[in-house]
Write a structure and sequence with these properties.
5-stranded antiparallel β-sheet, 156 residues, mainly beta
Length: 156
C-alpha cells in the first residue's frame, strides 16, 4: 500500500504576510516570532519552525466538505516557505515526535475511522486505516491540541 502526505499550498498564505498586524487581527490571524522548538509546526513545509522565524497563526478551513465533518482550526505557516512535496511513503520528521490523531474519511467526507497513536508508528497506522476500502483520505492532527497537520492520500 502506497500513500502520499500532502502539505498545504504556500500560495494560499503568501499575501497574508504582506498585511499589517492590525489587518491580520481583523481576519483572526496573529503574526508571531518563534520562541521554542518544537512548538510551531508549519503546515506548508511540515517542519517545525526554527527559533526566530516569523509565522502566522491562521484559522484554516482544512476539511471543506458537504458533510457534518467539515472543519476549521488554527494552523501555523512560516514566512517565505514553498510547499514541500513528499515522495510516496515519505514521512515528515515533524510528525515522528508527536502524539497524533488520524481520521479516515470516505468519498462523502464522513469519518469512518479514528485512531490516536504515536507519530513514530505513522506508517503502520496509515496502512491499517487504508485497509478499510471505504476510506479515501486521512487527516492527521496533533492529538492534544487537536490542530490539523496534513492530509494523506492513497497512491496507485
Amino acid at each position: 500500500m502506497n500513500f502520499k502526505i500532502q502539505a498545504l499550498k504556500n500560495q494560499e498564505f503568501e499575501l497574508l504576510f504582506q498585511l499589517s498586524d492590525f489587518e491580520l487581527e481583523k481576519l483572526g490571524i496573529k503574526r508571531m516570532i518563534v520562541d521554542e522548538n518544537p512548538g510551531y509546526p508549519c503546515r506548508v513545509s511540515l517542519e517545525d519552525a526554527k527559533i526566530g522565524e516569523e509565522v502566522i497563526l491562521v484559522p484554516y478551513d482544512f476539511h471543506k466538505t458537504n458533510s457534518p465533518y467539515q472543519s476549521r482550526g488554527p494552523i501555523f505557516v512560516r514566512k517565505g516557505i514553498v510547499t514541500r512535496v513528499f515522495e510516496n511513503n515519505e514521512i515528515p520528521i515533524m510528525l515522528n515526535h508527536r502524539l497524533l490523531s488520524y481520521r479516515g474519511y470516505d468519498k462523502y467526507g464522513f469519518m469512518k475511522e479514528a485512531v490516536t497513536e504515536k507519530g513514530e508508528n505513522l506508517k503502520s497506522v496509515i496502512e491499517n486505516i487504508f485497509k478499510n476500502t471505504e476510506i479515501e483520505y486521512i487527516h492527521i492532527h496533533n492529538a492534544s491540541p487537536g490542530c490539523y497537520n496534513c492530509e494523506v492520500r492513497k497512491v496507485e
